[in-house]
């Protein structure tokens, strides 16, 4: 049996002891922000109906809770982070060095097949990219090279539930538009890759 880390255990315990209506509401809201919502809409509606029709029946509530928890586990296995359901990804044009005065920070983002690597810091974007490349060279061997598809030079700011991303002077307009399309196509998966970005 695989060992769970502390954060995975906390997620399972939170799901296990949350009110079934709250779990259903959070799961519905999360799925409504994904392309998969249509696949689950009938099931979500059915659970709501079951809970409304059996408000005094703990067996029905437990059955629905078990099914919702199984769905949430499956979503996590697909790479979704359900804690990001209320987060927003905002692409906001281009910025220059003056954006530091607004609280923005520099970030370099490399995208590969299903992977994302980033670094943030005070150095210029080219220097940050060099640091990230060095880290990746150390981590990946020549026998198992990392295949990067894109490199992006960005500014970012976290404001409440919003992650605002802007292109830098080093980023081309075409690259930024491609990144924006990737992010907007599945913002929750994109946000999960940048969860620890601060």
From TrEMBL:
- Superkingdom of the organism of origin: Bacteria
Descriptive protein name: Uncharacterized protein
């Amino acid at each position: 049996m695989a060992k769970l880390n502390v954060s995975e255990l906390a997620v399972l315990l939170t799901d296990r002891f949350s009110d079934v209506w709250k779990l259903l509401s959070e799961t519905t809201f999360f799925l409504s922000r994904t392309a998969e919502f249509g696949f689950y809409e009938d099931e979500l509606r059915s659970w709501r109906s079951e809970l409304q029709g059996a408000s005094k029946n703990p067996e029905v509530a437990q059955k629905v809770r078990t099914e919702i928890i199984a769905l949430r586990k499956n979503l996590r296995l697909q790479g979704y982070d359900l804690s990001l359901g209320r987060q927003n990804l905002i692409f906001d044009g281009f910025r220059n060095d003056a954006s530091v005065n607004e609280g923005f920070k520099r970030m370099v983002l490399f995208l590969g097949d299903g992977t994302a690597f980033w670094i943030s810091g005070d150095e210029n974007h080219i220097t940050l990219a060099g640091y990230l490349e060095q880290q990746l060279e150390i981590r990946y061997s020549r026998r198992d090279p990392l295949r990067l598809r894109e490199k992006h030079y960005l500014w970012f700011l976290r404001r409440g539930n919003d992650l605002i991303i802007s292109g830098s002077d080093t980023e081309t307009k075409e690259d930024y538009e491609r990144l924006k399309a990737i992010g907007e196509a599945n913002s929750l998966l994109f946000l999960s890759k940048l969860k620890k970005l601060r």
